[in-house]
Amino acid sequence: MCPSLRSRSLLACLLLLAGLACGRKRQPSEEYTQAYLAFGRLTAAKLDQAYVDPEMSAIEAQLRRVPEQSMDAEAAAQLLARIAQERKRVQREQEALRSKVAANLAAPLRMKEGTEEAKAGPREPPPFNGRIETVGVDSLRERTRAGNKATLVFVYASWCPSCRKTFPVVNQVALNYQERGLEVVGLSIDENPTDLVRYLERSRPVFPALRAAPYPPGSLKRAVSDIGGTYPDSIPYLALLDGQGQLVAQSPGNLNRSALAAHIEQVLR
To answer: Do 120 and 246 belong to one domain?
Structure first.
């Protein structure tokens, strides 16, 4: 075969292969489909908090596995960019909220004359009814959305010395403000319910007695994060939320009673 004929044959083969390649349809990606569905479920359940939820990291990892040749590659890249952008926005808003509110209820805050806490003396709580409800730690968010004017989350344990000092303060505040719309969500992390019952019989709580069901590591931190707080991995932990479920103030450990009462007054105005 002459050189010119060979060249024309080679060119024809190359053109044929290029045509076949161009005509080959790009396939959809199963990784993208699964990630997109998981993204929809998570954002529907947790709204903005979904972008800082650990599950979102798994969704991002799945989006990164979408093949470049897939017809969904561009959509996966766009969704990854959206997640990163929204995460930064939520983190900025959370940081702004924490700096705006009084971040620590242990800091003194002057209380106006004539407030309920200023006027009210110690009140006697009723006897404990002996009922304890075991709940999942992830129920915290739902319990702060009950439409109360204000909600005080109190995480404690009967064996914790600092909690035993804080408990009567929280109990008295609950007595003074419950008629005005304050709801106290007291969550014990006691493993032994018998020990908790004995303690509550002496302490006589005026709020429902809740005990956390066994939970995997990190679950309580995520539950507190879901209500806008930062769990310090220690107890007692308190967080005050307004009627919209927004964090107003929180305290890891020490508690100033007048500060707590003053913040409650501001929310209930």
So the answer is: yes
| pLDDT given for residue 24 in this prediction | 52
Quick one: tokens of 240?
């005050």
Within a domain: 20: no
pLDDT in tens, 26-57: 778 898 999 999 999 988 877 787 888 889 99
Bond into 236 cis (ω within 30) = yes
Average pLDDT of every residue of the chain: 80
**91/116 same-domain check:** no
- Domain end (from 99, 124, 146): 99
**Distance (Å, rounded) from C-alpha 264 to C-alpha 237?**
16
